[in-house]
Amino acid sequence: MQLSARLIAKVILVSVAVLVVLYLLYLIRSIIGLLVIATFLAVALGPAVDLYQQRARMPRGVAILAVYLTILGAIFGLGLLVVPPIVRGVNNFVDAVPGYVQDLRKNETVRKYDNKYHVTEKLDEQARKLPSRLGDAAGALKSVTVGVFSALFQLVTVLVLTFFLLKDGKRVLEWVQRELGPERGPRMRAVFGDVYSAVGGYVVGNVIISVIAGTGTYVVLQILDVPYAVPLAVLMAFLDLIPLVGATIGGVAIGIVAAIAGILMSALMEGSQIPAFINIPAMLIVFVGTFGVTLASQGMDAMKRLPKLYKAAMSPPSFDQVARVRELVGFAERARREGLLALDEEAGKVEVPFTRKGLQLVVDGTDPDLVADVLAQEIDGMTHRHHEHVQVFEKGGGFAPTLGIIGTVMGLVHVLQNLSAPETLGPSISGAFIATLYGVGMANVVLLPVANRLKQISSQEAAFRNMTLEGILAIQAGDNPRIIADKLCSFIEPAHRPDPDTLRGGAASSGAMIEDAGTAEPALAAVA
Questions:
Q1: Is residue 79 in some structural domain?
Q2: Same-domain status, 233 and 318
Q3: CB atoms within 10 A of CB 48
Q4: What is the secondary structure of 386-445 as a DSSP string?
Q5: Are 516 and 523 in contact (CB under 8 A)?
Q6: Range in 270-274, 383-387, 468-472 with the lowest mean pLDDT
Q7: 421-461 pLDDT tens trace
Q8: Three-state SS string across 91-110, please?
Q9: Are 515 and 524 in contact (CB under 8 A)?
Q10: How far apart are CA 317 and CA 9, in angstroms?
């Protein structure tokens, strides 16, 4: 086939036009981002504006300003709740720093290292150099000021765009509906109406849940007498706005703060000073010793996985059982209509290796017992790998107290060697027992809780995969999709079980896994 010059010119011109458009979009990408944010805010704040407009009978423009003022008042109120306790805490800390320095000098270990390395003299030297660094500070302050004004300009831009979208968005949609014609216009308007209601309802519900989470956190922290209860409660409320993992991250962070605060407060209530708990040799024996013994026990490969495993424990994946059931029911409906071979196309679209393998075995006509054996072996292998990863933290949690006892024994040996100086016995004995405190604290505050959390995640993933296995076998057996939905819903907690009728007619995303990080299905086991 011979290409004409006209066709070649047309292809070239179209390609150039596409490249130009893409380049222009790249140049205005920041503006497009602001417009997307403003659109989302307009959809999210729409129900609140409608409420003011209908209940208070305000003009729409005034209702929008009322919503803005409400948000501003909420931010100002949160500032009044959060900022004063933090400012008081910082001021108290600044006032107490000289006393802390003197207390540190009373600690024999700290005083020894200070005399050896002249830490105090170096701090004084750096303080004398501060005037010469004012120029650098001014430059940094200029950069910060420019960044703040840029952020404020973007905020004002988003608020103005949101205002006009809220005020005239309906008229824009009506114009688009007219341009689309009588057939597609009403359909488009119905879709946008559903999106508007869904997003608005989601935002309102999420805010209400966050307020409940923050209030509950405040009450619990007040009962436990944890300091900075209000800022921590506000932090919990904000983190709870993050879908799926926000509440877990907030709970872990506040739990760590509560644990540390409880230990420090109990020590202060007993009359102890914070510097008395600082013992460099004990830290080396317990922390470095625990790392070394665990390394010798588990190997370097296991130790390299520690950061990823800790991250997996602090930010666990979400196992959306309802979405998985909906996906499997969708596969069952298609297989019932078109046959099992029709799932070959669906299997290629599935991102999760476990589910894809099961569907592929079914499409290939594999014996049901063999399908069950292969997938069960996958689950067993995953569980075994998870167990090996948890062992790193469990072994460390067992070694740490033992190393603490060893450190205490070494300290007591030093005490017995200096019985001729009775005035040093008290500090020396207390310093010796610090090692045991480090070991027990490291095991029970850090290592063992992480191990238990990883066990819980592994158990959840195994149950999730067993549910998937049952669904795949039911699809292969040709069970009725409604029966499959009822069977798989038995894996879901009764309080979270959906109506089986809502599970018909759709597939869902595969969901995030903790198995095999670094592959298509990130997980504990393949954090390797």
A1: yes
A2: no
A3: 20
A4: HHHHHHHHHHHHHHHHHHHHHHHHHHHHHHHTTTT-GGGHHHHHHHHHHHHHHHHHIIII
A5: yes
A6: 270-274
A7: 666 666 677 677 888 888 988 898 889 988 998 998 999 89
A8: HHHHHHHHHHHHHHHHCHHH
A9: yes
A10: 52
Confirm if 434 and 279 have CB atoms less than 8 A apart: yes
Greatest CA span in the chain, whole angstroms? 107
Q: Quick one: tokens of 159?
A: 């608020």
In a domain, 17, yes or no: no
DSSP letters for 4-59: PHHHHHHHHHHHHHHHHHHHHHHHTHHHHHHHHHHHHHHHHHHHHHHHHHHHS---
Q: Are residues 191 and 298 in the same domain?
A: no
Number of domains in the chain: 2
Give yes or no: residues 248 and 332 share one domain.
no
Write the DSSP string, 329-352: HHHHHHHHHH-GGGHHHHHHH---
When mean pLDDT is compared across 164-168, 250-254, 299-303, 321-325, the lowest value belongs to 250-254
| Last residue of one domain, picked from the residues 217, 238, 266 | 266
CA 110/CA 276 separation, integer angstroms = 10
- Of 213, 232, 266, which residue is a domain's last? 266
Q: How many CB atoms lie within 10 A of CB 507?
A: 17
> Amino acid identity of 527?
V
Chain CA centroid to CA 406, Å: 38
The pair of three-digit structure tokens given for residue 355, joined into one six-digit string: 């589910």
Contacts of 479 (CB under 8 A, 6+ apart): 332, 487
DSSP state of 270: T
How many CA atoms lie within 13 Å of 57's alpha carbon, on the beta-carbon side? 0
Spatial CB neighbours of 178, under 8 Å, sequence gap ≥ 6: 185
Amino acid occupying residue 246:
G
Burial class (CB in 10 A: 0-12, 13-18, 19+), 322: middle
Contact 399, 428 (CB under 8 A): no
Burial tier of 149 (Cβ tally within 10 Å: 0-12, 13-18, 19+): exposed
Q: How many CA within 13 A on the CB side of residue 230?
A: 12
In a domain, 331, yes or no: yes
Identify the CA nearest to 158 among candidates 66, 39, 25.
Answer: 39
Residue 69 phi, psi (nearest 5): -65, -35
> In sequence order, what are the residues at sequence separation of 6 or more whose Cβ sits closer than 8 angstroms to the Cβ of residue 473?
368, 371, 372
**3 state SS of 491:** coil
pLDDT for res 376: 92
Q: What's the start-to-end Cα distance of the chain, in Å?
A: 54
Whether the Cβ atoms of residue 374 and residue 475 lie closer than 8 Å to each other: no
* Residues 299-308 pLDDT 10s: 888 888 888 8
Residue 518: pLDDT band with limits 50, 70, 90: very low
Residues 520, 355: contact at Cβ < 8 Å?
A: no
Encoded tokens for 363: 């499409």
